[in-house]
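We now fix the convention by which a protein and its fold are recorded. Think of the row as the fold of the chain written in a discrete alphabet. Here is one such record, which you should read through line by line.
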Amino acid sequence: MRRRPIGVLVDALRALGADISYEGEEGYPPLRVNGRRLAGGDIEMDASVSSQYVSALMMIAPLMERGLTLTLTGDVASRPYIIMTLKMMKLWGVDGELYRDVITIAPGAYSAPAVPVEIEGDWSAAAAWYEITAISGGMITIDNLTDESCQGDRIVADIYSRLGVDTDF
């Protein structure tokens, strides 16, 4: 973790009112975070680094005093994961909007869904198993992946079909 650049996220959180300092090298963990409610508001963020940072801000946005309007700059990494975050937040009662490269989330609160929610498996993790199956010529069963997934790595099923790996959902 000490080599994972986190400066883009820390800068965004600071702009939203967070009290965060670096305990070691600037831009990298470990961090010291002094908890308080974030003001929120309008910020820009370089989204070419990681969609995880965008999702992190999105998930805390409803708890900010003014919500969040996040303008994404740069080549947006993993847009499908940003869309997936919005869909999951909606299941828990928080509406957000993505229009072009601007995400808007109003202040609000999360609430439990009225029906049980099944969390889809991780297509990124499944990709390695597709590779092993292509090389070995064997058969494998992976539970909890869907054909209608909004995960970007869902495409591995299509790619590996060209290599003789058939997927049945």
Remarks:
- The first helix runs from residue 7 to 15.
